[in-house]
Design goal:
The protein has 15 helices and eleven strands. By secondary structure, the chain is α/β, with parallel strands linked by helices. The strands form two sheets. A seven-stranded parallel beta sheet has the order 4-3-2-1-5-6-7, with helices on both faces. A four-stranded mixed beta sheet has the order 9-8-10-11, with helices on one face. Helix 1 crosses helix 11 and helix 6 runs antiparallel to helix 13. The radius of gyration is 20 Å and the shape is globular. The model has no long low-confidence stretch (mean pLDDT about 95). The structure holds manganese (II) ion.
Length: about 375
């Protein structure tokens, strides 16, 4: 039995994680759940999975949950509660599926207790990759990627020596606006931007996918997870989302991981790692399918280029890029700004930040808050 904590259990990856756990009841037990405000769904999950601890980030929602469970399960709240659930002594593996930089502290907290993490929260790796890596190393804990591309790369690295890696080919679906120029993206609505061609995912990542910021964050995530240089990561647009990424070795061999576009597969791989286990997921059938590969348009999608700039500069630049983007996406989802404003705002805030180094997660969170405030102020001044 593997004891699993699921942080962000009501989000898209969290729900799919619980589906995989439910399909494999004889292998997994849920020790802790953590969510924010979706109390009804969380209560259902508590009923089904019977965890020993539940963390609710939102304090009001925590009260609701506490009243409804009537002492049957321990309910903790706020960031402190999230970190407590992450570090819970009975956890064997902590699934980190909280969205945004909010996930930094819980991921760190799990690692600092020597817990392996299954990481779906790419923002944590972007904002605090160095610190998270150092803590994992110090505690001998593993970081198992859940992001489909990084799961693919992780699997393509099985049994090979990292020093023989020549390049990582990071695949991108291209998002709903692949092939459009910047001009053609003027006036794009929230509904159009939220439509993802191949994958079912949360709102934040859907917008990031439409601007290609998601791919930019994934470039940074790949550098942090696999210890390669930024220029060893190349993005390739593959709109069928069948190849989930590739690793090219110095001898010229290219290893790829293929599968149906279903997040439950990388989740399944991560939960069972280092073992393989049969699944009931849809099988990939390749007859009469074609696979295409294209160069991304860095002119139309400037945020991807900015991500390369950020990881090359290092220090706090990836954090700044991510923080500005989180605020811009939130404002777009609230109909405060236009689609193209996202890239303009993120670029402007990013260019205005100075180089800094954060030594602790506390410093990371402070700088993250500072840059988010700065971005809000910039939006207020320029767009309202
Ligand atoms: Mn991905």
């Amino acid at each position: 039995m593997k004891n699993i904590a699921v942080l962000g259990s009501t989000g898209s990856v969290g729900r799919q994680t619980l589906e995989v756990i439910d399909e494999n009841k004889e292998h997994f037990r849920v020790t802790a759940l953590a969510a924010n405000k979706q109390t009804d769904l969380l209560l259902e999950q508590i009923e089904t999975f019977n965890p020993e601890m539940v963390a609710v980030y939102d304090k009001e929602s925590a009260k609701t949950v506490r009243t409804r469970v009537k002492g049957a399960v321990r309910v903790v709240c706020g960031m402190e509660g999230l970190c407590e659930a992450a570090a819970y002594e009975k956890n064997d593996l902590v699934v980190c599926a909280v969205a945004g930089s909010l996930g930094v502290l819980p991921a760190y907290s799990a690692l600092s207790q020597g817990k392996d993490i299954a990481l779906a929260n790419k923002e944590a790796m972007v904002a605090a990759g160095h610190i998270i890596n150092a803590e994992a190393k110090r505690q001998g804990a593993r970081i198992i990627p859940v992001d489909s591309e990084h799961s693919a790369i992780f699997q393509c690295l099985y049994g090979n020596d990292k020093k023989d890696v020549y390049k990582i080919w990071l695949t991108a679906s291209g998002g709903p606006f692949f092939g459009k120029t910047r001009e053609q993206m003027r006036g794009i609505t929230k509904e159009q931007a939220l439509k993802r061609p191949n994958w079912t995912m949360g709102q934040k990542i859907s917008i990031d996918s439409a601007t290609l910021m998601n791919k930019g964050l994934e470039v940074i995530e790949a550098v942090m997870l696999f210890g390669v240089a930024p220029d060893q990561v190349e993005v390739v647009v593959h709109s069928q989302s069948i190849v989930h990424s590739m690793v090219e070795y110095t001898d010229g061999s290219v290893m790829a991981q293929l599968g149906v576009a279903d997040m439950r597969l990388p989740i399944h791989v991560a939960l069972f790692y280092p073992k393989r286990q049969p699944s009931n997921l849809e099988r990939l059938r390749l007859f009469d399918r074609s696979l295409t590969f294209h160069r991304p348009d860095m002119q139309a999608f400037v945020l991807l280029g900015l991500a390369y700039d950020a990881i090359e500069k290092g220090g706090s630049y990836p954090l700044a890029l991510n923080a500005a983007n989180e605020v811009a996406v939130e404002m777009f989802l609230k109909d405060k700004i236009e689609f193209l404003d996202i890239a303009d705002i993120v670029s402007a805030v990013y260019e205005s930040t100075a180089a800094k180094t954060c030594a602790t997660v506390k410093e990371v969170m402070e700088l993250d808050r500072e840059i988010k405030e700065m971005t809000k102020a910039y939006i207020c001044a320029q767009y309202q």
